[in-house]
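User: I'm putting together notes for a lab meeting next week and I want to include a structural view of one of the chains we've been expressing. I don't have a solved structure, so I'd like a prediction I can at least talk through. The sequence is below, exactly as it appears in our construct file.
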Amino acid sequence: MKITIIGRQINVADDLKALVDKKLSKFDKFFTDEAEAYVTFSKKRNKENLEVTISYSGTLFRSETEDDTFNNALDRCMENIERQIRKNKTRLERRFRQGTFSVDVSDELPVEEETEFNIRVKTFSFKPMSPEEAILQMNLLGHKFFVFVDSDSNDTCVVYKRDDGAYGLIVPSDED
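Assistant: Thanks for the context. Below is the predicted structure for the 176-residue chain, given as structure tokens.
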């Protein structure tokens, strides 16, 4: 697994980098060498914030935690990602066997920018997928909605989690 460590307005110590390498090597049993991990260290409101994102064949596993120390935050992130992997393991294995994720996609992490109105803008590449795959990806990321390109219609669609626990799908219309 290729690991990229980012420090936002802080310098990440070498011993902390070594600890991240050691902890993330635990996931080598789930991923091949193609997997990429992005670990971002930052401080917010006198707390240490850690974000871990693992990208593998178009699927993202992500966890963001805030704690008193980076070590504690790293442990919590690792638990969260392992839980996500185990929760979705059978679905992912079935899809990997079917070759759904075997398409070579050069996905990159979303790029964040800040505008003058303090709006966070994320830019990322789309991979065509079914609504079921989009729901799986949304749940893996822990988001309430997910924008994707429908593999059947090539339309940009949105899946979202409803308050009643069901899922919704927003599909564009050709009507004016």
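A couple of points you could mention at the meeting. The longest strand covers residues 47-56. Strands lie at 2-7, 36-44, 47-56, 59-67, 111-114, 120-123, 145-149, 156-161, 167-170.

User: Perfect, that's what I needed.
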